[in-house]
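Q: I'm a student working through a structural biology exercise. My instructor gave each of us a protein and asked us to get a predicted structure, then write a short paragraph describing it. Mine is 2-C-methyl-D-erythritol 2,4-cyclodiphosphate synthase. I'm not confident about reading structure output yet, so if you can add a plain explanation after the C-alpha cells, that would really help. Here is the sequence I was given:
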Amino acid sequence: MRIGHGYDVHAFGGNKPLIIGGVKIDNHIGLIAHSDGDVLLHAVCDALLGAAALGDIGRHFPDTDQKFANVDSRDLLRRVYQLIADKSYLISNIDITVVAQTPKMSPYISQICQNLAEDLAIGIDQINVKATTTESLGYIGRKEGIAVHCVVIIEKMPDSND
Ligand SMILES: Nc1ccn([C@@H]2O[C@H](COP(=O)(O)O)[C@@H](O)[C@H]2O)c(=O)n1
Ligand SMILES: C[C@@]1(CO)OP(=O)(O)OP(=O)(O)OC[C@H]1O
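A: Happy to help. First, here is the predicted structure for 2-C-methyl-D-erythritol 2,4-cyclodiphosphate synthase. I'll explain a few features afterward.
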C-alpha cells in the first residue's frame, strides 16, 4: 500500500471559465492558469503521481509547453491514471478537500465524484470530495483564490509480478 498527497493553488482572475473537478461553474470568475485551471484535478494528479513515485504534474505536462495551453485537465488526469496503471497500481481510495471561500461547492460535489470515478475507473464509494472555507481568513478568505488538498492510497494489482 502506498500513499500520495497532492496540493494545488490557483488565483481567481483572467477570462477562463471556472472549472473544478471537470464541472463548469457558471456565473463565477475563473482561475488563472496555463491549462483550464482545474485546481482540483491538478491536486488529484499530483497525489497519484506522488503515490507512484512519478514526480509531479509540472514534470509530465510543463506549463512552458504550448501543447498544454488551455488543456482539459480531465485529459491530464486520464494520462496520469494510465501512468499508474502501467505500473500495475490500483486506486484504493481518494479523499479531497477544496479550500474555498467561494464558490459554494456542495451543489457540484456529486458530479465531480462521477467525473473522477469515470476517469479513474473506480467506484463512487472510493471517492470523497468535501469543501471548507477559511472563515474569511487569509488569501482564500479574501476570495483571491482556491486551494485543494488530495490524499490517495494505491495498491499493486493482486496478479502483478512487480
Ligand atoms: N466552498 C465551500 C465551503 C464550504 N462548503 C460547505 O459548507 C460547510 C461549512 O463550511 P465551513 O468553512 O464553515 O466549515 C462545509 O462543511 C461544506 O459542506 C461548501 O459547500 N463550499
Ligand atoms: C497543469 C499545468 C499544465 O501545463 O499548468 P497550470 O494550469 O498552470 O497548472 P499548475 O497547477 O501550475 O500545474 C502545472 C502544469 O502541469
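A: Here are two points you could use in your paragraph. Residues 8, 33-35, 37, 42, 57-58, 61-63, 68 surround CDI (ligand 2) (CB under 6 Å). The mean pLDDT is 97. It's a good idea to check both against the output above yourself.
Q: Great, thank you!
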